[in-house]
């Protein structure tokens, strides 16, 4: 597949209800929903007729739903399918968006950085802080964020992309829980790809990462959709060693798709002391 075709395929993947249903159906273990394992199964997951039975709809209707031939399904049908697929609340909402029941999102990402946001990010002195766009490009970062990621050789002033950073082979030792970071990154990209389905640069990024990194392509095929706004991130920093920081991610309420990301540690903890050491340049 040539690069342009791959990009188009990835864009269709996130905007297509049928492809999403197929990907999620393949992930359901029959034994988890009370069905007997069958050695004659040629593909993983549930068959269409099994999913239809669990959802309480006809096989013909569910087949038309996956093939894009069914007219707008009802909320009740979508909820039944979501239960059969064992979707969580975030992924269920994503399913409804793909079916057209809620607006897919702002759809018009903004590249401009409001001066007030730039000033706010750069004024945060104690903890790493950065402003990212929906593609995970770093638009603005403070000194602490640059000190944190400097060992990776990334110039935070040149707007690096955090998804590329995570999947860079040289970055893996920096993230002790790399599989978790990778899965969260892909799940977040899949969600914003549906919100900004006409963004060609985002489609290009997803196509690039899919072709360059086998693990990215495998995670993408799992069709995970998650909000990754709150959590912990572990680092193995060459200057301060093991570091666990609390992540808060705030969506800027102006329709731009931009996110304010902060990484912090509670005062009095070893992690807080290590951030202070990092802020002082590593001098003991």
Short key terms for the protein model shown above:
elongated; 434 Repressor (Amino-terminal Domain); alpha+beta; five-stranded antiparallel β-sheet; Beta-Lactamase; 2 domains
Alpha-carbon distance between the termini? 53 Å
Supply the number of structural domains: 2
Structural class: alpha+beta
Strand content: 5-15%
- Main β-sheet, spatial strand arrangement: 2-1-5-4-3
CATH fold type of the largest domain: Beta-Lactamase
Molecular structure report:
The protein is α+β, with helices and mostly antiparallel strands and 284 residues long. The chain folds into 2 domains: 3-98, lambda repressor-like DNA-binding domains (434 Repressor (Amino-terminal Domain)), CATH 1.10.260.40; 115-279, Beta-Lactamase (2-Layer Sandwich). The protein has helices at 3-15, 17-25, 48-55, 59-66, 75-84, 89-98, 115-123, 143-149, 162-167, 178-195, 200-212, 214-221, 270-279, and strands spanning 129-132, 138-141, 230-237, 241-251, 259-264. Helix 5 packs across helix 6 (89-98) and helix 11 (200-212) crosses helix 12 (214-221). The model is unreliable at 1-11 and 103-107 (pLDDT under 50).
Summary, kept brief:
The protein is α+β, with helices and mostly antiparallel strands and 284 residues long. The chain has helices spanning 3-15, 17-25, 48-55, 59-66, 75-84, 89-98, 115-123, 143-149, 162-167, 178-195, 200-212, 214-221, 270-279; strands at residues 129-132, 138-141, 230-237, 241-251, 259-264.
Blueprint (SSEs and pairs):
Blueprint: H1 3-15, H2 17-25, H3 48-55, H4 59-66, H5 75-84, H6 89-98, H7 115-123, E1 129-132, E2 138-141, H8 143-149, H9 162-167, H10 178-195, H11 200-212, H12 214-221, E3 230-237, E4 241-251, E5 259-264, H13 270-279
Antiparallel strand pairs: 1-2, 1-5, 3-4, 4-5
Helix pairs in contact: 1-11, 3-4, 3-5, 5-6, 11-12
């Amino acid at each position: 597949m040539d690069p342009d075709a791959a990009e188009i395929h990835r864009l269709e993947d996130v905007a297509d209800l049928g492809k999403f249903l197929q990907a999620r159906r393949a992930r359901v273990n029959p034994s988890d929903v009370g069905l007997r394992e069958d050695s004659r199964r040629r593909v993983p997951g549930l068959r269409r007729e099994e999913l239809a039975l669990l959802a309480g709809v006809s096989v013909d209707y569910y087949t038309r739903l996956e093939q894009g031939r069914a007219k707008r399904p009802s909320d009740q049908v979508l909820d039944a399918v979501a239960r059969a697929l064992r979707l969580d609340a975030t992924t269920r909402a994503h399913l409804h968006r793909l079916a057209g029941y809620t607006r897919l999102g702002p759809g018009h990402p903004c590249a401009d950085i409001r001066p007030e946001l730039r000033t706010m990010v750069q004024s945060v002195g104690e903890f790493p802080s950065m402003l990212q766009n929906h593609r995970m490009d770093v638009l603005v970062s403070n000194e602490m964020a640059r000190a944190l990621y400097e060992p990776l050789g990334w110039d935070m002033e040149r707007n690096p992309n955090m998804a590329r950073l995570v999947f860079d082979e040289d970055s893996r030792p920096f993230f002790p829980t790399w599989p978790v970071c990778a899965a969260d990154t892909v799940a977040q990209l899949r969600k914003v790809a549906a919100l900004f389905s006409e963004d060609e640069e985002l489609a290009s990024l997803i196509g690039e990462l899919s072709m360059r990194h086998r693990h990215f392509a495998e995670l993408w095929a799992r069709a995970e959709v998650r909000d990754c706004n709150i959590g912990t991130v572990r680092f193995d920093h060459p200057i301060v060693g093991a570091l666990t920081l609390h992540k808060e991610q705030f969506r800027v309420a102006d329709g731009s798709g931009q996110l304010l990301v902060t990484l912090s540690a509670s005062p009095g903890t070893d992690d807080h002391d290590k951030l202070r050491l990092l802020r002082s340049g590593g001098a003991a």
